Amino acid sequence: MRRRVTGTILGGLILALVPFLSTAATAAPQAAPAAASHPFHHSCATSKAGRASCTALVRNDIADSAHTLRAEANAPSGLSPANLQSAYKLPSSTAGSGQTVAIVDAYNAPNAEADLGVFRSQYGLSACTTANGCFKKVDQNGGTSYPKTDAGWAQEISLDVDMVSAVCPNCKIVLVEAKTNNFSDLGAAVNTAAGLANVISNSYGGSDASDSTYGAFYNHPGKAITVSTGDAGYGVEYPASSRYVTAVGGTSLRSSTSTRGWTETAWSGAGSGCSQYNTALSGQSGLTGCSRRAVADVSAVADPATGVAVYDSTSYQGQSGWLVFGGTSVSAPVVAGVYGLAANAASVTNNYPYAHTGSLFDVTSGSNGTCTTAKWCKAGTGWDGPTGLGTPNGVGAF
């Protein structure tokens, strides 16, 4: 379960299936196996008062077979950029030029640029470096006084930059590193990101809170801001519950013989529900059953059993290299990348998807817990809490 600590931040990240695979692999990417359950341990838990942690969960049943996996695997496990582009019908090869997506996370990932290079090379994506102007890393004030390294958050950062790359390889990327995982520092990083990017991705969350307290950090007209809804199932977190952001829930994504080629259900860990504090979006009127802001708006893959391939070299608890991630820390940067492809951030608001549901795949099965109003925790036709209006079907809803 996620700890909920008022005034602090939790990451929206789950890490699963950790094969130490060769980075020289060149065969076609393979989807993660759809395992039902596995033993996990927390990637970056903390017991310090006034702090919280990202919710990275690491598979415990992989390390013993690492040598075998390294010798036999032809490509990283997990969904590849080509898989995501196919599942969501994205114009990734032709769109996104001139757009910049900012990633806001806590602490420093010292190898972020180099790790991104490994990921992009593996999948045949063009280089994205400081030298060619595609990648930039700054501290929360826009400078280069980077915070201390935290290996758990470094994994989060690798996930975020890799997912933006996977969906929008032509987008530029700005990584903004907050000094700590407190609201004030992360908020300062968001303010800095708003001056550097068209789109801002946030893969963290804490207890539901009021926009009257923290909303100034996320109120940036003309910028598309995505936030993960959380990984503990039914329940609302902030800043996903802010009226100024796009709250991104989670699904299980598997290949199928359908016309689409993929099938999705609500992921049991995705956060959802009604905010106690914040005003509903105008597009939600008469739709959600909530008197205030409802979560989520849209969604994308988040289930670690159908997770995505990521490369991270900052060793944490003996694990590094090619990893498979889940959590709404996947879905938030995926949707941020879709906003980058759409290139409409300057002229649309977070109500836009509500008027363009024909460009979304409606997710109609699965649930994330028990609730008094079924649509808050169970997927169904139209809007529901775990998956919102659905997942991208091209860029028309963004």
Automatic annotation (TrEMBL):
GO terms for molecular function: serine-type endopeptidase activity; tripeptidyl-peptidase activity. Residues 1-27 form the signal peptide. Keywords: Hydrolase, Protease, Serine protease, Signal. SUPFAM superfamilies: Subtilisin-like (SSF52743). One of its GO terms (biological process) is proteolysis. Residues 78-398 form the Peptidase S53 domain. The keyword Hydrolase applies. This is Peptidase S53 domain-containing protein. It comes from Actinoallomurus bryophytorum.
